[in-house]
Amino acid sequence: MSAERSHALLSASSASRWLVCSPSARLEEQFPDVESDYAKEGSLAHEICELKIRQHFVKKQSAATYKKKLKRLQEDPLYEKEMDGYTDEYLDYVSGIVHGFDSPPYIAVEKRLDYSHVVPEGFGTGDCIIIGGDTMHVIDFKYGKGVPVKAEGNPQMKLYAAGALKEYEILYPVEKIMLHIVQPRNDHNNSGLIYKEELESWLNAVVKPGAQQAWNGEGEYRPSEETCRFCRAKATCRARSEQNLELAKEEFKKPPLLSAEEVGPILQKAKDLKAWAADLEEWALKEVLSGGTVPGWKAVEGRSVRKFADQDKAFQILACSGMIEEEMLYVRKPHTLSEIEKMLGKKEFRELLADQVVKPPGKPTLAPEEDQREPITLQTSAEEDFKEE
Fold this sequence. Notes:
The chain is α+β, with helices and mostly antiparallel strands.
């Protein structure tokens, strides 16, 4: 649909933003929706996923045709061998759900889902829908390495479920909906259950009024780390600017030392401020490089490192000079674990080297309280302090 938006104005993927910061959807319209290389890489991985699921469960084609289509996708410049392992994990996850039914369920792949009955012109694409008996599974494959995404309570997944329910409720007596996020590059697959009645209550009470407000460009701007993260207007949004500049008004002088209770909220604000400053700097650089003016700032060449114009030729000259032995020009070092996994593919790597891999504790880092990782402390227990050597 070239004449239409390739994505809905109120897309399911941005629902966590426009349901909170309702005017942001219309504000974003002023900025081009440019697909990053990461997004293109994700699209390629989704195409491979679709091909594999269709081959196994929907419409089996000849082995030669399947291999030909897979080879075409693998010739894409963004393709890497590890993509096969991650998409195989997705196939295994879907297979586990399919084989969990007593009889073959209905399966739809890359299904366009219309949820315009609750969101103006709302539509999206569900990666995989599986229905059997009174249960529907809505599965979303995420190829990014970013923050682990939770399926339970996820607005994007619930809107996909709303579209799937509208499409299939006449044919299937769906009462239970399982939402699944498959995020193999983060080793993070998870699911959540929502009942039809609960979903419909959320759609009527939260989504319908929130979506109408967002469609009209009304309501209050509510900038936050989560709502601003993928917003195209985040760099020059005035509401975000004013919120972050409020940090400068914090009273840091009374008493002389900050308490732990004061440090917590200040750290959160400083984190948001740092992200905003980085976004603003990126925007300003693009502006001056394109010929625009940002008073007080200009683009200059950054730090550069010397290099040989032609390394092979330089090394040949050195070797011929006799001043340095040729073997002294090279350093032999082992590939990293990640590089070897990339060369082998995740499946082969696991089969060959699973028992050779250890994961030592990571360096302590500060994280928000809602982070799902277990808290750690370097404080020793009384038992450890007094145990005998």
